[in-house]
Structure formats: C-alpha cells, structure tokens
Amino acid sequence: MPEVSEYCANVLTSHNMPTKIESAGKNDALHQNAYHLLKEVLKQYENGSNLPQLMPPKGGKKWIEANKTWDWENPELQAESNRIQEQLRREIDEENDDIDNYLSDSSSDAAPVEELLGSILDNRVDPC
After folding, report:
1. What CA–CA distance (Å, rounded) separates 110 from 70?
2. pLDDT digits (tens, 9 = 90+) for 22-32
3. CA-to-CA distance for 62 and 99, rounded, in angstroms?
4. Is the separation of the CB atoms in 78 and 72 below 8 Å?
5. 67 alpha carbon, distance to own chain's centre
6. How many of the other CB atoms lie within 10 Å of CB of 29?
7. Residue 34 carries which DSSP code?
8. What pTM, to 2 d.p., does this model score?
9. Cα 96–98–104 angle (5° rounding)?
10. CA-to-CA distance for 51 and 5, rounded, in angstroms?
C-alpha cells in the first residue's frame, strides 16, 4: 500500500533514520530501532483506523517458495530459512492433498460449499 509505505518513510525520516536500511543483522541497532519504532507507530496508526482493511493475499506460501532466490551469509539464518521453506513445502503438500481428497471423495457434494459462499456473500458489507 503506497500510503502506508509513505507514512512509514515519513516516520523514519522524522526520527532521523534512513528510509532504506542496508543491514538487517541480528545485532544491528539501527535496524532494531527502526523496527520497534515502526511497530509502535503503526499500532497507533492502525488503532486510529487510518490503515485500510486488507485481505491476506492468496497464494502467499507459493509466492514465497517461487521467489526464494537468496542465500543467507549467516549459517544459522540459512538453516532457519531452510527449515521454514521445508515447513511451507509440507504445508502446501498437505493442503493440496486435502483438496485432492475432498474433490475425489464421491460422497461429497457441492451443497456445503454453495451454502458457505452464499452466507459469505450475504454478509458482505458494501464498502461505498
């Protein structure tokens, strides 16, 4: 969201911090301070209802998997990244298996899905 990015950049600038931090190391004080500052300011910003309501993006796990193009210099971070990537792969595989099992189950029918979709559509709030 451009307005949130702009707000964050303004907050960092107003606190004499760079808007782009080159190092995000575990012991990097500038990165940690910027993170904590933005965390608190965005919490207040959100509580004031200034942030737009967003739906989580669909396919995020697949995007992460497809866009993993970096290797960490720190072996501990690389090991953690590898562990998370493997966990995501397992979760995606399990979700795909669940979908395949549901779709191949001859006793399932479309009525529960249609009822769920109908109730979701009926309870939508018109944003205008």
Report:
1. 42
2. 777 777 788 88
3. 16
4. yes
5. 14
6. 8
7. H
8. 0.37
9. 100
10. 11
